[in-house]
From TrEMBL:
<dbReference type="GO" id="GO:0000270">
    <property type="term" value="P:peptidoglycan metabolic process"/>
</dbReference>
<keyword id="KW-0812">Transmembrane</keyword>
<dbReference type="Pfam" id="PF02698">
    <property type="entry name" value="DUF218"/>
</dbReference>
<feature type="domain" description="DUF218">
    <location>
        <begin position="81"/>
        <end position="244"/>
    </location>
</feature>
<keyword id="KW-0472">Membrane</keyword>
<dbReference type="InterPro" id="IPR051599">
    <property type="entry name" value="Cell_Envelope_Assoc"/>
</dbReference>
<dbReference type="GO" id="GO:0005886">
    <property type="term" value="C:plasma membrane"/>
</dbReference>
<dbReference type="InterPro" id="IPR003848">
    <property type="entry name" value="DUF218"/>
</dbReference>
<protein>
    <submittedName>
        <fullName>Uncharacterized SAM-binding protein YcdF, DUF218 family</fullName>
    </submittedName>
</protein>
<dbReference type="InterPro" id="IPR014729">
    <property type="entry name" value="Rossmann-like_a/b/a_fold"/>
</dbReference>
<dbReference type="GO" id="GO:0043164">
    <property type="term" value="P:Gram-negative-bacterium-type cell wall biogenesis"/>
</dbReference>
<feature type="transmembrane region" description="Helical">
    <location>
        <begin position="38"/>
        <end position="60"/>
    </location>
</feature>
<keyword id="KW-1133">Transmembrane helix</keyword>
Length: 271
């Protein structure tokens, strides 16, 4: 139920959907012989401020900068393993009968994992994720990642698959169960920068917290206020999805605090 509700809310609270709602209300008012002016003005304001200003990119930038950007492994020896959260592969497109594995907008999760695996040849690679789709068909994301990684030369003996999880809390719970006897600070956690705070919070809730390694940044290091560039709805969709996700996870005890940060002590268990 939680999984389905999260998907519905993700669509319902997107900037594009809210714009459609305002336009629909304007049309409904017109059909009822009432003035649609108020709804049209609100729609134009929402489009102008939401899509043509940097308001949403500024919020997304704050979220991406919540977890420090790691680019160099700080310990003398290499990481023991690399954890890759699902979201790099377009599962639906990869199972459409064309026979190719399609990387999605979060492709850097996969490519950075392979880069680290090349630089640290003793590190294991954990691909975590079954599917984020409501009605998945064909190979799951972990299986697709395995097939693509081995096809690109990664030794199959280095790969560990976790193919039960369907959301971030389940990613953390299943991976922590697999690796609970390993030193967490020797493992790298790869996911998109805008998603890293929620991912770190979910691992904090398990008591096993790997080193965050954010990728797939959608904003530069700093975003200033401005207008004129159509980036707001794209950034706003990601920002809204994550803020709602953080709030929902906090209210359901899937993360220990609303705004997780790496230095926070782990507490509690995923429920």
């Amino acid at each position: 139920m939680f999984f389905v509700l999260s998907k519905v809310l993700s669509v319902a609270l997107s900037p594009q959907f809210l714009l459609l709602v305002l336009l629909a209300l304007a049309l409904l008012a017109s059909l009822r012989k009432r003035s649609p002016g108020v709804w049209l003005v609100l729609a134009l304001l929402w489009l102008g401020v939401g899509d043509y200003s940097t308001l949403a990119p500024m919020g997304l930038n704050w979220l991406e900068n919540r977890i420090p950007h790691a680019t160099v492994w700080q310990q003398d020896d290499g990481p023991e393993g690399i954890i890759v959260l699902g979201g790099a592969i377009d599962q639906a497109a990869s199972n459409n009968g064309r026979g190719e594995i399609v990387l999605g907008s979060g492709a850097e999760r996969f490519t950075e994992a392979l880069r680290l695996a090349r630089d640290y040849p003793r590190a294991k690679v954990v691909f975590s994720g079954f599917s984020g789709l409501l009605d998945p068909q064909g190979e799951n994301e972990g299986e697709l990642a395995y097939r693509l990684a081995t096809g690109l030369g990664l030794d199959p003996a280095r790969i560990v698959l976790e193919t039960r999880s369907r959301n971030t809390a389940e990613n953390a719970r299943e991976v922590a169960a697999l690796l609970h006897d390993r030193p967490a600070d020797k493992w790298v956690l790869i996911t998109s920068a805008f998603h890293m705070a929620r991912a770190v919070g979910c691992f904090q809730a398990t008591g096993w917290v790997p080193q965050p390694w954010a990728v797939d940044y959608r904003t530069p290091p700093q975003v200033e206020w401005g207008v004129g560039r159509r980036e707001g709805f794209s950034a706003g969709g990601l920002l809204g999805h994550e803020v709602v996700g953080l709030l929902a996870y906090w209210l359901t005890d899937r993360i220990p605090t609303l705004w997780p940060a790496p230095a926070m002590a782990a507490e509690g268990q995923v429920k």
